[in-house]
Write the structure tokens for this entry.
Amino acid sequence: MDADIKMAAAAVAEADAAFARLSAVRAAIARVIFGQEAAVEAALVTLLSGGHGLIVGVPGLAKTKLVETLAVVLGLSERRIQFTPDLMPSDILGSEVLDQAADGSRSFRFIRGPVFAQLVMADEINRASPRTQSALLQAMQEHHVTVAGVRHDLPAPFHVLATQNPLEQEGTYPLPEAQLDRFLLEIDLDYPDRDTERRILIETTGSEEATAERLLADGELQDLQALVRRMPVGERIVEAILDLVRGARPGADLVPDAARDIAWGPGPRAAQSLMLAVRARALLTGRYAPSLDDVAALAVPVLKHRMALTFEARARRRAVAEVIGLILAKVI
């Protein structure tokens, strides 16, 4: 019994220390990124869960600035890839070049592409062709790439934070469904309120501007990710996650009216993502276990990009978030 008490006390102390570190991280980010608290929280949940994030918003909402700030504060090596229509897969992964030695012998040498970083910013990912977008599929799922039949491991931790303009913007391509499923969360950025925009005007157009400072040491983010996976999850939360994900598929009988509007829905990876995300959000907000509030808060970011509505539902101007809300109301 004493051993169990000591283990529980140690786990609580570790969670408290992690919360203190994460509070400092959020404060450091807030000195650079103004008025996007929900987006910052979602991005941190994504990284604490060990996943990848898709940041969606119109130009000028600090999507790129957010990723750069996260990399600095969390102490991650960062590379930016600007996606354009003429970008090729080799521009992301790297390529082999033929070297000739002094004795005349020749051999191939692999030159690593920008994907070999701990935090890869895929800027405006939907401006590249689907073929080029798919170059990230293996990297995002398996954390290694294969070039000319040879495996090359990526750094650890490895995360992709992709920024995307809304699909109705000119010159964009929709992401393949298989790639969308590899993003743990879709992080939506909205316009700031008036007070926040006033602060942006004053603090970013003067002679001095706040810069990000590193807070986490090497390996510290991985320790936090390991802690997230050790957090207990109650049976009620597990059942809620299962009900929500399974209810968001075509033909589900949980909410028949909603299911009839779904063309295709989330697979098991969505349930895994939600399971990790609710744990990460609990830790980020100073709690020792996730609650139903976490499930409710993360349902749309986890499921929205993993679902599509039927033509009839879209003709009635029904939104994916609305359908998820109907299912969530039945589950919670």
